[in-house]
Amino acid sequence: MHAAPSPAQPPAGTGRKVGDVILDVKNISLAFGGVKALTDISFDVREHEIRAIIGPNGAGKSSMLNCINGVYQPQQGTITFRGKTFAHMKSRQVAEMGIARTFQNLALFKGMSVLDNIMTGRNLRIRSNIFLQALRIGPAEKEEIQHREYVERIIDFLEIQAYRKTPVGQLPYGLQKRVDLARALAMEPQVLLLDEPMAGMNLEEKQDMCRFVLDVNDEFGTTVVLIEHDMGVVMDISDRVVVLDYGKKIGDGSPEEVRANPEVINAYLGTQH
Ligand SMILES: Nc1ncnc2c1ncn2[C@@H]1O[C@H](COP(=O)(O)OP(=O)(O)OP(=O)(O)O)[C@@H](O)[C@H]1O
């Protein structure tokens, strides 16, 4: 039996200062049979930055996130996270190391309450014996209280207090996306991978989500890697942008640099975004 840990409190305003490279993607190639989803992709992510991955449909953006979080195993290349280099990352190992993920098509339990869905994000951090947990005695009780406190702070932070007990399936789509973000944040990640966090949202929901992503980055100091189709959003909130097209990297730089890149302009001409 392990002693109950003291979950860290969400930090109050770490301020925002981009640091050293935390995640380094080198020469990643991934193919599905004859389909080359990614060809020799390299880019890095610095601590505390907001890094966007953009590109037309089928460019390889989701495949890239799936390589980072261990869902896909690239045939070539390495990923270095906080100085440790991996050819193949396993999903659980990635999560334990501090990389959390939200999904394009939400991966929430629709019949469960908002609170319980967010608690599933704490599972990796629960240390006490499963029998003590079930009986809620001893260290397990103390630990559960601490985890619930952490989750409540995230609920306050993302302004979803009013829906704590509501089954997630009954919430509007924009709020479900916010719960998915809360579940990922409950893992206390150092890096948050967001797969189209604003997809399918109306303007107001997008503005809210932008504010929350910026606040998470600012207040928790979390590094953010996001795939996003809305160029306005990308240009507004990203520090740097990687551009993929047909599985190849065609641009990498500040929003202004990629916007002025002729290859990027060409890739987007005639496509709908
Ligand atoms: N599991 C898979 N099996 C076979 N092919 C796949 C698989 N996943 C992705 N692909 C292919 O890899 C390429 C890149 O797809 P990916 O979903 O990564 O692109 P994307 O940029 O995220 O696209 P979108 O913007 O439409 O989500 C596409 O040709 C896609 O059909």
From TrEMBL:
> Where does the source fall among the domains of life?
Bacteria
Q: Which GO MF terms are attached to this record? A: ATP binding; ATP hydrolysis activity
User: Is Calcium set as a keyword in this record?
Assistant: no
The UniProt keyword set, sorted, is: ATP-binding, Cell membrane, Membrane, Nucleotide-binding, Transport
Question: One Pfam family name from the record?
Answer: BCA_ABC_TP_C
Gene3D superfamilies the UniProt entry points to: P-loop containing nucleotide triphosphate hydrolases
Q: Please give the start and end residues of each transmembrane region.
A: none
Under which name does UniProt file this protein?
A: ABC transporter ATP-binding protein
